[in-house]
Write a structure and sequence with these properties.
alpha/beta; D-Maltodextrin-Binding Protein, domain 2; 2 domains; nine-stranded mixed beta sheet; 11 strands; Extracellular solute-binding protein; signal; SBP; transport
């Protein structure tokens, strides 16, 4: 762990130095938007998700940007594999693009390193910035939420994906609206399939910490889940009585309705559901397509295509879903980009109302105002849309959050709870010690 912390601190120091020693010759203040692009070309890094999913949105933004600024746009398509390493190299070498996409869990270390342009003063120029999705917006902000360094792009949310045919055969024809209703419905489904080997009315893998944490997140704000910060020090919330109460609810559901899976993650739950002995899972909205995929080797079952439905995971009160972890992508301008003002202007156009409305046909847009357009694009979108505009949560926005340390600690904790080896207070207390030590490592 000490080596991990030292490496993270060293990277932040080097990135800060790189940003401060920028060789950019642009006379445009970094926080400003620029339309002075005649004879220039801006380089933008976007993921292939857009190239494959919504290329017309990208083309429309490029056309509008060129008409407005006179600058050309060079889109350099990226893949998620080893992307962090490539981005680090570009920032450290001074060859960063003028604008880029990154996952919303990746932003914190770059914000801490002053590697991105501070866009706070021009935030209001971005369409719908007052209604950005809560957790997506938080991922691009300073830990205190007062400054904006990354612009929300699009989001993804976890939902309840269920076999409506199995529910109907058990006498459940109306989707549950509360956790109590869900519990009662799951019991009916379980009873109706008591003779089916290894049947799960709701499959909840023990190591799926994203889902488990959601059940405990209801009493906290967007940034208060797992740990909260006073601006200097992080304090854990995993052992808060309100959090543990929510985890007890999750644990009751997995003990009563989930068979197997206590010591595994969610990576194969789609393929397991496709086999026919799982009535419901909690997963990303796109996983519904994976369950019924016809791609050879995918493990999907196309025969279930008409049998699946999805809803936001019900909460304790009707109309208020269980808080969802909001994943997705952000957009940012490197501090030592050659054309930071033009880069910011492209991102403004790329996320304006027209482009986000077009994007809403394919993914959750970056703001609550346009989520209805996403929901209207397909009946299957309502569940994810409802989850996105409801209460959501995000990991502690710290450069010291660690996938290999902190996420592993959470996986181990929930697996220990699911197997009954440890009670929630003990398991979560152990995880909390690891996580707060990591988050406070710079102190």
């Amino acid at each position: 762990m000490k080596r991990k912390i030292a490496a993270a601190a060293a990277l932040a120091t080097v990135l800060t130095a790189a940003a401060c020693s920028s060789s950019s010759t642009s006379s445009t203040p970094q926080s400003a938007l620029s339309t002075d692009g005649k004879g220039k070309t801006v380089n933008i890094w976007l993921m292939q998700d857009a190239q494959q999913g919504w290329p017309a949105v990208v083309d429309a933004a490029k056309k509008e940007f060129t008409a407005e600024t006179g600058a050309k746009v060079n889109i350099q398509w990226q893949t998620w594999t080893n992307y962090s390493t490539k981005l680090d190299t570009a920032l450290l070498s001074g060859n960063a693009p003028d604008g880029l996409e990154l996952g919303n869990t990746q932003t914190a270390k770059y914000i801490a390193a002053n590697a991105f342009v501070d866009l706070t003063s021009v935030k209001s120029k971005f369409d719908n910035s007052s209604t950005w999705l809560d957790s997506l917006a938080a991922s691009g902000q300073s830990p205190d939420g007062k400054k904006t360094f990354a612009i929300p792009y699009y989001a993804g949310a976890r939902v309840l994906i269920y076999r409506k045919d199995l529910f109907a055969k058990a006498g459940v024809t109306t989707p549950p609206t509360t956790l109590d209703e869900l519990t009662a419905d799951l019991q009916k489904v379980k009873d109706a399939n008591k003779n089916v080997p290894n049947f799960s009315a709701l499959y909840l893998p023990g190591m799926n910490w994203y889902t488990a944490v959601s059940f405990g997140a209801g009493s906290f704000g967007t940034q208060g889940v797992i740990a909260k910060s006073d601006g200097k020090t992080y304090t854990g919330t995993l052992t808060d009585p309100a959090f543990i109460q929510g985890i007890n609810t999750w644990n009751t559901l997995q003990k009563n309705f989930s068979v197997g899976g206590q010591t595994v993650n969610e990576s194969n739950q789609d393929a397991l559901m496709a086999k026919g002995n799982i009535a419901a899972i909690i997963g990303n909205a796109w996983e519904q397509g994976s369950v019924v995929s016809s791609t050879p080797g995918s493990g999907g079952n196309p025969a279930l295509a008409n049998d699946l439905a999805s809803i936001a995971v019900p909460g304790t009160t009707a109309g208020q879903p269980t808080p969802a972890f909001l994943g997705g992508s952000d957009l940012a301008v490197p501090a030592h980009a050659a054309n930071p003002g033009l880069g910011a202007e492209f991102l403004r156009i790329f996320t304006d109302t027209a482009q986000q409305t077009a994007l809403a046909k394919f993914a959750i847009p970056n703001n609550k105002t346009l989520v209805p357009a996403f929901e209207a694009a397909s009946p299957g979108n309502k569940a994810a849309g409802d989850a996105a505009v409801g209460k959501t949560w995000f990991i502690p926005n710290s450069p010291y959050w660690s996938q290999t340390s902190d996420e592993t600690a959470l996986q181990n904790a929930f697996s220990a709870i699911a197997t009954g080896k440890e009670d929630p207070a003990k398991a979560l207390g152990d995880a909390e010690k690891i996580i707060t030590t990591d988050l406070n490592s710079a102190n």
